[in-house]
Amino acid sequence: LILPGCGKSETTIPECNVVNPIDELGWLKDVKNSLTNCTCQISILQGKYRGKTVFYIMNTDPVCNSVFHVILWDCNGDVVKEYKPGLFDTYSQEVELVDNIYTCTD
User: Fold this and answer.
1) Could you read off the pLDDT of 59-91 as tens digits, one per residue?
2) Staple 80 to which of 8, 72, 95, 100, CB 3.0 to 4.6 Å?
3) In whole angstroms, what is the distance from residue 106 CA to residue 49 CA?
4) Strands, E, within 22-94: which ranges?
């Protein structure tokens, strides 16, 4: 299902039954609202893991160093997988970035 949009087509995410997950998934909206005073750019990303839609937070600021740590959540906010420091290569092979759905910068 593709809905007309202003500049960007919006597609329903079948597993989540939403078009705009950052506003339509209550738990993800809470995550977004918890990101405040972001001295480094922090993003909420939508990706694919083993063919399923996932969401995760990542430091996307090229000038800020941080320890790699990513937790993948499904549409219900349940943890799918956790990538601890040192597992960036595994993450890179297993997770496909689909979209940056929110970025916190202050």
Assistant:
1) 999 889 888 999 999 999 999 999 999 999 999
2) 72
3) 30
4) 42-49, 52-59, 70-73, 79-83
Residues 6+ apart with CB under 8 A from 61: 40, 41, 42
Query: Do the beta carbons of residue 72 and residue 54 sit within 8 Å?
Result: yes
Encoded tokens for 13: 């995410």
Residue holding tokens 């979209």? 99
The answer to whether 81 and 50 are in contact (CB under 8 A) is no
Q: How confident is the model at residue 11 (pLDDT cuts 50, 70, 90)?
A: low
How many of the other CB atoms lie within 10 Å of CB of 35? 16
Contacts 24+ apart (CB under 8 A), 58-62: 60/100, 60/103
For 20-29, write each residue's pLDDT tens digit: 999 999 999 9
> Cα 99 to chain center, whole Å?
7
* Distance, CA of 43 to chain centre: 7
